[in-house]
Amino acid sequence: MNPIVFNGNKLRWKFGNIWGLSKEGFMSEKFKIGHIDWIINISHQYDYMMIDLKCTSENEMEKNWICEMSGKFRLLKHSGDGKHIITISRGCYHAGLGTSPSARVIKWYYLLLKNESLILDDQVYVEIDFNFNYYDFSKHIENITDMIVTVNDTEFHLNKWALGSRSKYFQDLIINNLPGETKNVKLENITEHHFCLMLASFYPFFETNLELYYPDLLEVAEFYGVPSLHQKIEQYLLVDTELNVIEKIKYAEKYGYENLMEQSIDSLKTGLEIKFLQADREFMALKDTTKLRIMNRLLDFV
Q1: Using CA atoms, how far apart are residues 109 and 94, in angstroms rounded to an integer?
Q2: Labelling 202: which of 88, 111, 222, 228 has CA 20 to 30 A away?
Q3: pTM check: above 0.85
C-alpha cells in the first residue's frame, strides 16, 4: 500500500518567503529562496517521502563556496472547521546546496513510520525552519591557508595538509616539489563546480548531491585519487533505484566497489533473472572473474 495518498492532480503548497542566515554570521545579506518546486516520490525499497526542492537565491553564490541547508519541517493541515491547524507529519533534513549557479535541486528525506499514511491535498502546507552554512574558499585565513589552487581563473585558498592527506594527486604534488613550488597550483582538467564537490567530499558537514553529478565525479575521484569521494559515490549507488543491475556491476568492476558488487549479485533472486542478465549484450564485456561470480550465484538456485 502506498503510504502517501494524493487527492487531486496537483498539490498546492502554502508558504511565504523563507529566509536563512549563515551560521558564521559574517554575511551581511540574507539569502532568500525565491522559487519552490515540489515533487514527491515514494521509494519502492524503503518507506520514505522524498521532497525535491528547487531553490534560487537572490544573491549569486561564488564559484568557490560550498554550502548546505539543514533543519526541520512540518507538514500542516487545516482542520475540517477551517479554524484549527494540525500537524500531520514532521521531519528533519540535511541537504547539500552545492556551488554556483545559485539555483540548486536539493532533497529532503522524511522517514515514514511503519503503518503511517499521509493524505495530501490543497489544504496541506509546509512550515520550514533551517540553517544555511557554507565554507568560503575565496579568502586567505592566517596560519591555515598555505596553497592557492586556481581553476579556470577562480582561486581556492586551501591547506596543503588537508589536500595531501585526502588526495593522492596532491600528496604526490606536495612530496615531489619544493615548498615554494606548491604555493600556487593551476588545474586545467576540472571545472570549478566539480572541484568544489571534490572538496565537499571530505568536509565534515557537507553532503554532496551525487544524483546530478556522480558520473563526472567518478572520473574526478579516480584522477585525483580521493578515497572519500569514491566512498560517498559507492554509498549513493548502493541505494540508487534508477540504475539496473548490469550498470551497477559495471561501476563496481571499474572502480573496485566491492560492497556494490556483492549487493548487485545478491539482488539476483532467481535463475531466470540471471539468464536475462546473461542475455544482455553488456554482460559479455564484463571480466571473467565477474562472470564467474554471477555463475556461482546461479548455482544457488539449482
Answers
A1: 8
A2: 111
A3: no
